[in-house]
Amino acid sequence: MMIEFEYWWLLVLPLFFTLGWITARVDIKQLLSESTTLPAAYFKGLNFLIGDKHDKAVEAFSEAVQANSDSLELHFALGSLFRRTGETNRAINLHVNLLDKKELTEPQRNAVKAELAQDYLKAGLFDRAEELFKGLEDQRYKQPALHALLEIYVREREWAQAITTATELERLSGVPFRVEIAQYYCELAMNFIITQNADAARSQLALALDANKNCIRANVLLGDIEAIAGQHQTAISYWKQIEFQQPEYLGLVAGKMLKSYRAANLLKVGLAQLNTYIETYKLSSLMSVLYEATLIEEGAISAAKLARNELIRQPSLTTLDQLLQARAMADDLNNQDVQLMQQTVRNAIGNRAAYHCNQCGFRAKQYHWQCPACNAWESLPAEPSEAISREMTVKKSNQK
């Protein structure tokens, strides 16, 4: 029986190949037939797009639309080009005129509304864009519409609606939005902190930690609330939780911790705690805080010793500057050579230390939970990096 079965397949296989060849020929003929109905201006526009000649592409697609005014695809292509070149008014007029056509089917009308909503979003007309995106009931547009609505709510700082939208988008797409949702709760908490409603702020921060147990910002803000209330040991306990979330962020709260330790008459405990963090995690931001505190509390000799040990363990220009400063103060020197060395080191350091967004490369002197350029959350590293070394890396990658 097995032998007969195999022979049977040998007879059928050529038939399958023949059917496949015929189908392919039909598809090719159909494609060629459809392509001949497109105006020549369409292909000119494509060539201009490939060559990044957007202005000429707009002219070509405008000509194609005039030649084939019934093609929605050509209208959409032209509208997209208008948005890309910043001509949002022309895009809006194009799609509004399309909606006036009575012969549009319901799916076509939804497609035009989706394009018009993108026009309004690009133009910054968020109220109109929001209304259209909310009205797109067709499941094909549900997730893109939610993404756009989320962008609107974040830009408008409507955090409660952003939470609802992100939660729904997470449910539909299966893509987690835990980091973003936790940050939205933190933003709500910030509003309550500003209005001095500490209890409401605490509630929002608890929700942030429920959404994302590794939300560092929530513990930073909880510590801030307690420190403002004079509950310094409670504040310290919140900040210490960061070690169990992402210890590289301890540098963001090291200065605050020392202030609360000092306020609670536990400064030596605080200095010892920072020393432990430095030995364990070797963070340069912690070293800077500890050096300044040691210089103030224990004097220049102790600060110089601290800087020297750090310089041996992990050489850096910043630590060398600290060592030179402490040595000059400890020896009470008005030594021009020491001053010259310090000035040289500081010139070399300059403004190199900065936070660089890992999404868009935006450079910031201060830490931001949300990148000011691309609006990504938690995209800046916990520790600042050297700008010069980054620029050299970029140049090398471009050369490759």
Commentary on this structure:
The chain is an all-alpha fold and 400 residues long. The chain has a domain at 351-389. It is built from 21 helices and three strands. Strands 2-1-3 form a three-stranded antiparallel beta sheet. Residues 1-37, 41-51 and 387-400 have low confidence and may be disordered.
Outline the fold blueprint.
Blueprint: H1 2-37, H2 40-50, H3 54-67, H4 72-84, H5 88-99, H6 106-123, H7 126-134, H8 142-155, H9 159-173, H10 178-194, H11 198-211, H12 216-228, H13 232-240, H14 242-245, H15 254-263, H16 267-281, H17 284-297, H18 300-313, H19 317-330, H20 336-349, E1 353-356, E2 363-364, E3 385-386, H21 387-399
Antiparallel strand pairs: 1-2, 1-3
Helix pairs in contact: 2-3, 3-4, 4-5, 4-6, 5-6, 6-7, 7-8, 8-9, 9-10, 10-11, 10-12, 11-12, 12-13, 13-15, 15-16, 16-17, 17-18, 18-19, 19-20
Tell me briefly what this model is.
With 400 residues, this protein is mainly alpha-helical. The chain has helices at 2-37, 40-50, 54-67, 72-84, 88-99, 106-123, 126-134, 142-155, 159-173, 178-194, 198-211, 216-228, 232-240, 242-245, 254-263, 267-281, 284-297, 300-313, 317-330, 336-349, 387-399; strands at 353-356, 363-364, 385-386. Helix 10 (178-194) runs antiparallel to helix 11 (198-211) and helix 16 packs antiparallel against helix 17 (284-297).
